[in-house]
Write a structure and sequence with these properties.
Helices cover about 50% and strands about 15% of the residues. The chain has 15 helices and 8 strands. The protein has helices at about 10-15, 25-30, 35-45, 55-65, 80-90, 105-120, 125-150, 155-165, 175-190, 210-215, 225-230, 240-245, 255-270, 290-295, 310-330; strands at about 1-5, 20-25, 70-75, 95-100, 195-205, 220-225, 275-280, 300-305. It has a 4-stranded parallel β-sheet. A 4-stranded parallel β-sheet has the order 6-5-7-8, sandwiched between helices. Helix 10 links the parallel strand 5 (about 195-205) and strand 6 (about 220-225). InterPro entries: FldB/FldC_alpha/beta (IPR010327). It holds the Pfam family HGD-D. GO terms for molecular function: hydro-lyase activity; iron-sulfur cluster binding.
């Protein structure tokens, strides 16, 4: 089976139907002990220090893992992906592009997915057959999410890890399903968590994975991971086709579409506050202006760069934010 890298979530059903093993380079980069070296390699090769650590990490991970075919999302994700693909193409890596259209209509999304299927010689029936095969896995991801915000047994980090992994199923959907079932069985036997504050996390998945454990030390727990949940396609069971599934995927489209789902989840999960994570040098950080204006609960914006650990200043800001939320909710000191 051939490997193919991806720069973010794409219609993975098409790639699996084409006989590829899919590797999300974001996951390979951030989960590796070599993540700092991936960034350093990119900077040695000429990537500016003032460019996004994720794009540099994807570049380093691509070379470290010997990826020779790559799908990059040119519209709807990182504005630097086009340049990244040009660099990798010049190094002999075969690249394909996919775009989530800025004109967010069923017709435009259908056209882009049809182009993607044509590029890999995949028929709609083949992609739909794979989508059906993945339905059980996506259903178990919903169970993991409910164990987080309804049963209060899964941690925010577990919710993050097991949903973000559905961008590529860790390279093996069958094994991923078995691991998810096993983890859900383990979590189901736990005593519910009792933290007083219920938080949401919005924005791209964090470089700083210790965020989840840190907030738990202050009587809080993250029970909603916005983009990670979208990677798991929680509404795919209700989608009548692959076209509708990727039309309903909120992350790559306009902010109003994303915010409508975030507002639903704030009410459903009874959130006390939100942490909005932005990445240094990312255009999405500007969206914070609208997010704070549109949402009716407190929002703390934190920024990450190269480090995979929270810095002292961010820890202090998080502590102050959680203290404020405790006061607003009347949580005893």
């Amino acid at each position: 089976m051939k490997n193919i890298g991806i720069t973010t979530t794409v219609p993975v059903e098409v790639l699996l139907a084409a006989g590829y093993r899919v590797i999300d380079l974001n996951n390979v980069f951030i989960s590796s002990e070599a993540c700092a070296q991936d960034i350093e390699r990119a900077e040695r090769d000429g990537f500016p220090k003032s460019s996004c650590a994720w794009i540099k990490g994807i570049y380093g991970a691509c070379l470290r893992c010997g990826i020779d075919e790559l799908v990059g999302v040119l519209e709807g994700d990182c504005s630097n992906t086009r340049a990244l693909m040009e660099v990798l193409r010049g190094m002999g890596i075969k690249t394909y592009d996919f775009s989530y259209p800025s004109e967010h209509t069923p017709e435009s999304v259908t056209a882009e997915i049809n182009k993607f299927m044509d590029r890999f010689g995949v028929a709609l029936s083949q992609a739909e057959a794979v989508r059906e095969d993945l339905a059980e896995l996506r259903q178990y991801a919903r169970v993991m999410d409910k164990l987080t915000y309804i049963d209060n047994k899964a941690t925010g980090l577990e919710n993050h890890l097991y949903q973000v992994s559905l961008s590529d199923f860790n390279g093996d959907a069958v094994q991923c399903l078995e691991e998810l079932k096993k983890k859900i069985s383990e979590i189901g036997k736990r005593t519910p968590h009792t933290q007083a504050l219920r938080l949401g996390y919005i924005g791209v998945p964090p470089m700083t994975g210790d965020l989840y454990r840190y907030v738990e030390d202050y009587d809080a727990r993250i029970v909603y991971n916005e983009v990670q949940r979208e990677f798991a396609f929680p509404r795919s069971m209700e989608a009548e086709s692959i076209y509708r599934q990727y039309y309903d995927y909120t992350y790559p489209y306009n902010l109003d579409f994303r915010l409508s789902e975030i507002k639903k989840q704030i009410k459903l999960r009874e959130l006390d506050g939100l942490i909005h994570y932005t990445q240094a040098f990312c255009h999405r950080a500007i969206e914070d202006i609208i997010i704070k204006r549109e949402l009716e609960i407190p929002v703390l914006t934190i920024e990450g760069d190269k480090s995979n650990r929270l810095d002292p200043r961010t820890k202090l800001r998080l502590e102050a934010f959680l203290d404020m939320l405790s006061d607003l909710k009347g949580v005893p000191a």
